[in-house]
């Protein structure tokens, strides 16, 4: 339960608390076409007053000696970008939210699922939210923010009112590979291949495609992302696929992530994942996916007190939302974006549903 002032946190005053890594970030390309797109991106960022520059292959070798992009390679470098540690950021946001509890503007009801809405007999509007243990009155609005579970949550809660609302959000599964004490090379910045942003690595299908993007989200798409966490571990990603709510580790996907990373860092080809079972961790999680790739943040038509919002939720402490490094809580942001939109998340929740008393 949140008040209005807990929706954002200004990183200009809280960077240390949120445990950021201020190493800058790079979008890297291996072809002339990639670099043309990256140059245009840099120009737009510079025009907007943000720190950005295009690095040639030779300039990249100085910044990232282990990175190999070929003769046509280059990168868009954002030196002022910061990376957030998702778990510590959530802990910080929870602590900040709790400071409003004394004013009656914040309360937590974890592990207390919502069972129904209580509606006005005269208007049909939502007057309260019934949980398994209590009734919470609604002052202005109810925000449904259950990530990839939003569709089923909405269906279950409004079924009794005879209302039909289509929330086509789907769970999109992703893997991250984390390596500890990996000595062959050091990574100096957060890296991502240009194809991750453009979705160029997604495979086409004639039977199961997103009508707006043309890409088949059910086939695993692998794009290279690489960064280090606060403890110095290497984090490689990433995969994207729609296979329902399955969160089991798929070793074939992990191998593909490693193979893709090896194409950018040839030194990795000298090592085998099979020899690193005791020094590796694989994180698997789900993110909400909407057809067309755009989020759903909107009031439900005909209901002034009900707002549907899809958001990434963390399932438990061993399976973190897949990010990977450039999304939601782990997203690297430029100077002009340094406000973190605080999701009502808790790492040990399977599903989250936030009911907000807006003032």
**What is the count of distinct domains?**
3
Report the principal-axis shape.
Answer: elongated
pLDDT averaged over residues: 76
End-to-end Cα distance, whole Å, is: 12 Å
Q: Indicate the proportion of strand residues.
A: 15-25%
How many individual β-strands?
18
Q: List the quaternary state of the chains.
A: single chain
The residue fraction in helices comes out at: 10-25%
Main beta-sheet strand count, sense and barrel state: 8 strands, mixed
Helix segment count? Answer: 7
Q: Which stretches are poorly predicted, pLDDT < 50 over at least 5 residues?
A: 1-17, 200-215, 311-359
Q: What is the ordering of alpha helices and beta strands?
A: EHEEHEHEEHEEEEHEEHEEHEEEE
User: What does the radius of gyration come to?
Assistant: 22 Å
Structural class: alpha+beta
Task: Trace the largest sheet across and list its strands.
Answer: 4-5-3-12-13-14-11-15
